Batch of 2 targets.
Target 1
Amino acid sequence: MKLKKKISTLQVLNNRSDECLFSPNPIVSQKRKELIIEQTLDQDRYFTSHKAMIASRDLCCRVFFDIHKYDSLVTPLAIQLNLVEFVELFDSKQ
Ligand SMILES: [Zn+2]
């Protein structure tokens, strides 16, 4: 197990992306979507936004956070410790 010296925050996308898994027409099938969410919760992880993944950033999907923040282990912990940070996918400098 790798130990991080610096405390990192849980970064959550500020807005739902237009390719969100939780959108009415997600890019995967309904079954696949349920499986992904189930696996994510089973592993007590959070779901990384697809858009963020493409941009090589590890940002929690906003809708996952809103719906499942108390269903996983890592998200309630981050909330409890005040380590949640809402961020834009691309900062405005670009
Ligand atoms: Zn999303």
Target 2
Amino acid sequence: MINTALETIVAGVRCREVLADLSEYLDGTLPSSRVEALQAHLAGCDNCAGFGGHIADTLAALRQNDAPFARDLTTLVLARIGGGLSP
Ligand SMILES: [Zn+2]
């Protein structure tokens, strides 16, 4: 199950913590220390890289465009990659 992978720790951050921080990261409200940890995790985590994607690239693109649909898209992405992960 994917939930096991979510417990993987890379750069001192669990995958599930990255997922939990994605929304704030998109909103730009995530503290810079957390942003650095999140980005370090994404850069070195095979699990997150395998979640469909290039999450970091997608997030960066969304942030640049400041797209109004970003929040909805985040919800969709989390639903798809989170599996049984409950908020
Ligand atoms: Zn990860």
